[in-house]
């Protein structure tokens, strides 16, 4: 599994909330249950049926009432300041903190069969822990001042205690077995001060978890992540990534096809910019952005292939997409065109397969490990491969990672790995074959489509499916490109088999753009779905066949031109930064867990000792 894919896996741990109406109903039942759980032990002690009337009143008026009232009061206080806390999420926060409070209050009380002193102490400590939890939650997702956070965090627990005391004073007799905590206000304040101090230490510790490595706080990063997840606000996260990123100069290959009227028919782009990290952050929508914008400005159909790159070459901000587009447009008019292309050649070494083809003076090298899984081939491997095969005699070689097969276990391909060695040897074999291949007239047809019912959540990005059909020496060849992040096991082979059987295609390759627009758009396992998993494959393959037939209808003779453009001053995430960020989740979790034990366990012990002076 690639490192950033591991972070995107966090989305599989996230959850969605019910709508507000369902949440209100759920909270009512939860409130009554928590009141029953925490107070039923007093019935066992007294066998008084009036306990059940109190349980109902505390559940509905005390707990549920405080949840709703505090939510209504807090909404104007946080509106426009904590965007992620809408009514539904604030209600959920209130429910969870109430459950936490009553679990801490109820369990010791139940175990001791309603022991009065245990019940009082448990309720006081439960209140303090619930408030601490609320402070941590609000501080982690907002830029509110500490005083405002404390006000928002204490309202619901204090309101709950107030309504509980009101029930005991006004509706139930003084000899009632459920204890009041009114006369322990000083003790409550003392315990709250202890917990507030511990909470501030805890927040500082967690915030410093990655600060020494990246000069950004752990909570600052978490805050930006939550803003993107809940409100689709990309700016905070992109601002952080830009702050820690590094500048690189990266090559982009441009391969153009002009018809006999000298009009641009099609453009193939091969950026070495990774289309990640997820959703619309950074360069995640790079393939769709380039195809859409270049189509509008040139009239040509555009296909973006996946060059050698990994997550260290993610752009830190979407704002750079326009700069890349401008650089490509600036170079389109500086391309010379020639006739002819070779047929596709195929070579294999070990688990790696390479298909290669020459267009004019441009050599296209496409690598795959399918039917075995593989993730990104790094830029260093791609550049080394092209350097080696150019020594064999081919010109202007450029590498494409087909990115077309993935399973449960997969890794990136780095320099020195066995897979990289196999790849280079296979590429050398293909280069030697190309040197003996004659250049022949080239006809090209192209078709693109997105009118198939496969949403982002199922792995198909906004640019849909592209088919480039070629006729060379009387034989048909095809490149099929999905705007997806990889393909499920076996799909590539099924598509190639159908193309050969139904359309007389001699050879074909199936690729993906590796768009991360499809990543983290759902909370399913892994954070994204490779195309072909959980869908009707027959429907997808039939759609590819229909696009190939459409491409055949517009096939015509073309000239080819190419240029490799080096785009400078690109801000990317960087190798070190990716390593730190991808380890931030497990490190942050470990720090948060250990810091919680180190700060709150002594605080609970201190609170128990302090209570001996009052209870």
Q: How is this structure best summarized?
A:
The protein has 615 residues and is an alpha+beta fold. The chain contains 18 helices and 13 strands.
Overall average residue pLDDT: 91
Low-confidence stretches: none
Share of residues in helices: 40-55%
| Class per helix and strand makeup | alpha+beta
Largest sheet: 9 strands, mixed
In DSSP terms (H or I, runs of 4 or more residues), the helix count works out at 18
Secondary structure layout:
Elements: H1 3-8, H2 10-13, H3 20-46, H4 50-78, H5 87-111, H6 116-141, H7 146-170, H8 185-207, H9 211-214, H10 218-231, H11 235-244, E1 246-259, E2 264-271, H12 286-298, E3 301-304, H13 320-332, E4 337-339, E5 345-349, E6 352-359, E7 362-368, H14 379-391, E8 397-401, H15 418-434, E9 442-449, E10 465-472, E11 475-482, H16 491-503, E12 505-512, H17 537-553, E13 556-572, H18 575-611
Parallel strand pairs: 2-3, 7-8, 11-12
Antiparallel strand pairs: 1-2, 1-13, 4-13, 5-6, 6-7, 9-10, 9-13, 10-11
Keywords:
615 residues, alpha+beta, 4-stranded mixed beta sheet, 51% helix
Explain this structure to me?
It is a single chain. The chain is an alpha+beta fold and 615 residues long. The chain is 51% helix and 17% strand. It contains 18 helices and 13 strands. It has helices at residues 3-8, 10-13, 20-46, 50-78, 87-111, 116-141, 146-170, 185-207, 211-214, 218-231, 235-244, 286-298, 320-332, 379-391, 418-434, 491-503, 537-553, 575-611, and strands at residues 246-259, 264-271, 301-304, 337-339, 345-349, 352-359, 362-368, 397-401, 442-449, 465-472, 475-482, 505-512, 556-572. A hairpin with a 2-residue loop joins β5 (345-349) and β6. α4 packs antiparallel against α7.
